[in-house]
Write a structure and sequence with these properties.
The structure is a single chain. By secondary structure, the protein is α+β, with helices and mostly antiparallel strands. It folds into two domains: 17-137, no CATH class; 148-189, no CATH class. It contains seven helices and six strands; from the N terminus they run αβαββαβββαααα. The protein has a five-stranded mixed beta barrel with strand order 1-2-3-5-4. A hairpin with a 5-residue loop joins strand 2 and strand 3. The longest helix has 18 residues, at 2-19. The relative contact order is 0.13. Keywords: Signal. Residues 1-19 form the signal peptide.
């Protein structure tokens, strides 16, 4: 009987961790995302692959790996999949300078127990380390422009990105091959 109670207690830990209210003190701006709530908490910036599998890279992979927030209050690994920019480019560029450091983040937490996988998804808006003033998490486009100086022109970054354009040239806009892409365009626009 005791082992069943211990097992039940272990199952309750994730539920209790996601039920915590981290909205106190948050100044996060709403994005009107489904199931969002403001959330400000202390966490350590970690390499998610390292945390989950033990396969660790120096300096959190130098931007080649997805980063996470290991929340101090309950040890939950939070997935920061968006920064404070209007696009959904991700938050790695903004979090990488804080690899392995304890930070205070403020943003929006997505929690919906009725949708599988919609838990501990985070949109980080500001990051502060060591009591410093918070910095806005909006560096992705600046980093992209610095890495792609020859991708000038009009329009959003993804219309000019060499990697995106190479994939489209290889497999079409739909990703199903150039022949299917052309047939689709012909049917749609003619």
């Amino acid at each position: 009987m005791m082992k069943y109670l211990a097992f039940a207690a272990l199952l309750a830990i994730p539920a209790a961790a996601t039920a915590a209210d981290f909205s106190e003190g948050s100044e996060a701006r709403s994005w009107n995302l489904y199931a969002e709530s403001p959330a400000k908490f202390e966490a350590t910036v970690v390499d998610i692959t390292c945390e989950v599998t033990g396969d660790c890279a120096e300096n959190c992979g130098d931007g080649t790996r997805q980063l996470g927030l290991l929340r101090a209050a309950d040890g939950v690994l939070v997935f920061p999949n968006k920064n404070n920019q209007t696009g959904f480019q991700g938050a790695v560029v903004d979090l990488l300078p804080f690899c392995g450091q304890s930070v205070t983040v403020d943003g929006l937490l997505i929690e919906d127990p009725d949708i599988p996988g919609a838990t501990n998804i985070y949109q980080v808006q500001t990051i502060a380390a060591d009591g410093a003033e918070p910095v806005k998490a909006r560096n992705w486009t600046k980093a992209w422009e610095a890495a792609n100086p020859d991708a000038g022109g009009k329009g959003p970054w993804f219309r000019r990105d060499p990697r995106v354009n190479a994939i489209i040239a290889d497999s079409g806009h739909l990703g199903l091959g150039l022949e299917i892409d052309e047939a689709f365009k012909k049917e749609l626009f003619e």
